[in-house]
Amino acid sequence: MHITQLNRECLLHLFSFLDKNSRKNLAKTCHKLLEVFQDPLLWSLLNFHSPVELKKDNFLLGPALKHLSICWYSERVKVCNTEDWMKNSFQKDFCKSHENTVSDFLLDVCNRCPNLLSLTLSGCGHITDDCILQLLKNCPNLKSLKLENCVRITDHTLEAVTLHGASLQTLHVDFCRNVSQAGLERVKEKCPSVILRAERSANMIPDSKPEKKLTLEKASRKLVQL
């Protein structure tokens, strides 16, 4: 039996075992398989491991998307998780291009994926508070939000959770060094039913230039002397 003789349900099941590139390549072989590739039911789950993947045409975004994961740890994107004041001009331009790619992609998710249930972002130094705010507003069914090593996330994201995360059941902000203990306490107070985890976040040193830290130390010494 030829593959095209299988019914649509069988073909969807077959496609579900393939990665995004394999699905795209198979869809190029005939019109029937292309129709299966374009079936929204095939795209309820998406995983990405590189910023480059967000630009490809080997996946579909739509209301069927329920679970989205963007996780990367390669050496090329590690620089995006360092403090801005430590980057040279080349590194800043490199990070800016990644930031635009991620922001544009998440904007598409906001506009086209209102039924999203879970979102995991790990190692994404480009994610901003505004991105999370828009996602919470446009994806009211979001139940799980897991952020790890997203260095630009601050207490503004935690505030957005208290205002727009009515459906949220799980919130992780692990290794997000610009999240404060006060912000975490506010989430616990306003959203007591949310399972909150913040491993190493509030205990990490937030982004700031060394000069500012020295100034604070000098000021505290003066107060002690007085």
From TrEMBL:
Q: Write down the Pfam families for this protein, in alphabetical order.
A: F-box-like
Mind telling me which GO cellular component terms the entry cites? Answer: cytoplasm
Stored SMART domains: LRR_CC
The F-box domain covers 9-46
Question: InterPro entries attached here?
Answer: F-box-like_dom_sf, F-box_dom, F-box_LRR-repeat, Leu-rich_rpt_Cys-con_subtyp, LRR_dom_sf
Q: Which UniProt keywords apply?
A: Ubl conjugation pathway
Magnesium found in the keyword field: no
Q: What protein name is recorded for this chain?
A: FXL22 protein
Name the species this protein comes from.
Alaudala cheleensis
